[in-house]
Amino acid sequence: MVAAKKAPWKKPAPKKAGKPRHLTPAQKATAKRAAAKAGRPYPNLVDNMRVASKGKKA
């Protein structure tokens, strides 16, 4: 049986995360579009995390 993953807001911050990085204006726009598509007035943590992780992989 697979254990359910904890929600990001229930996990402690990583100890060795390195320097905090800000989203670029393009990433912010992408997160805002995702939020609007989901019916939210502004992006939430999950929208921001999704956009930030796509930037690392590309």
Descriptive report:
This protein has 58 residues and is an all-alpha fold. The chain has two helices and no strands. Helix 1 packs across helix 2. 7% of the residues are buried.
Shape, please? globular
Radius of gyration: 13 Å
* Poorly predicted segments: none
The main β sheet shows up as: none
Output the helix-strand order. Answer: HH
Q: What is the count of β-strands? A: 0
Helix content: 40-55%
Q: What structural category arises from helix and sheet content?
A: mainly alpha
The first-to-last residue Cα distance is: 33 Å
Number of helices: 2
State which percent range the strand residues make up.
under 5%
The overall pLDDT average reads: 87
Q: Gist?
A:
The protein contains two helices and no strands. It is mainly α.
Features:
globular, mainly alpha, single chain, 58 residues, 0% strand
Secondary-structure blueprint:
Elements: H1 25-37, H2 45-57
Helix pairs in contact: 1-2
